[in-house]
């Protein structure tokens, strides 16, 4: 089980920005694309939502003010898989990033190309606070582990 001890409640960012930073981290690790319909990828993306859910539980147990927890709830709900296990919310966010971060070549979303240069990805990550970088690192490390890819595509 992944620990949320390193996560700071102040690290929450809007869902769109989280997805941008997530994509930037993938690109920084050499990823060129992801396959949202692949069962391992679906499991890995769902596990990222699980990280948010565990952080929310931990923050509540620690007595973190609800005002600081709400952004985490929003991100989790905006990315949460459907009851049938589909990842439409992730697909929507990736499609929303199209033109800047991603390229979806077909309407079935079999492959989402990560369309930013590594230098741009690095720049995007440098704009984050240390706490936000920790959040992205933890989310991506969990994604890599659950997708069976270590940290490589």
Q: What's the short version?
A:
With 153 residues, the protein is mainly α. Helices cover 57% and strands 5% of the residues.
Which short descriptors sum up this protein?
single chain, 153 residues, mainly alpha, 3-stranded antiparallel sheet, 3 strands
Structural account:
The protein is mainly alpha-helical. It has one domain. The chain is built from six helices and three strands; from the N terminus they run αβαααββαα. It has a three-stranded antiparallel β-sheet. A hairpin with a 7-residue loop joins strand 2 and strand 3 (112-114). Helix 1 (15-28) crosses helix 6 (130-147), helix 2 (39-61) packs antiparallel against helix 3 (66-79) and helix 2 packs across helix 6.
List the helices and strands and how they pair.
Blueprint: H1 15-28, E1 33-34, H2 39-61, H3 66-79, H4 88-96, E2 102-104, E3 112-114, H5 118-126, H6 130-147
Antiparallel strand pairs: 1-3, 2-3
Helix pairs in contact: 1-4, 1-5, 1-6, 2-3, 2-6
Number of domains: 1
What's the rounded overall pLDDT mean? 87
| Strand proportion | 5-15%
**How many runs of DSSP E, i.e. beta strands?**
3
* Count of helical stretches: 6
- Using only C-alpha atoms, the radius of gyration works out to 15 Å
- The ordered string of helix (H) and strand (E) elements is HEHHHEEHH
State the end-to-end distance.
Answer: 22 Å
The shape, in one word, is: globular
Structural class: mainly alpha
Main sheet: strand order? 1-3-2
Helix content: 55-70%
């Amino acid at each position: 089980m992944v620990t949320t001890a390193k996560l700071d409640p102040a690290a929450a960012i809007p869902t769109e920005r989280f997805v941008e930073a997530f994509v930037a981290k993938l690109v920084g690790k050499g990823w060129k694309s992801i396959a949202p319909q692949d069962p391992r990828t679906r499991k890995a993306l769902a596990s990222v939502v699980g990280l948010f859910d565990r952080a929310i539980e931990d923050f509540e147990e620690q007595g973190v003010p609800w005002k600081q927890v709400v952004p985490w709830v929003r991100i989790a709900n905006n990315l949460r898989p459907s009851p049938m296990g589909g990842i439409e919310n992730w697909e929507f966010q990736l499609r929303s990033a199209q033109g800047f971060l991603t390229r979806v070549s077909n309407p079935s979303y079999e492959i989402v190309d990560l369309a930013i240069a590594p230098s741009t990805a690095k720049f995007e990550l440098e704009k984050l606070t240390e706490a936000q970088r920790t959040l992205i690192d933890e989310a991506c490390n969990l994604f890599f582990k659950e997708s069976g890819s270590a940290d490589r595509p």
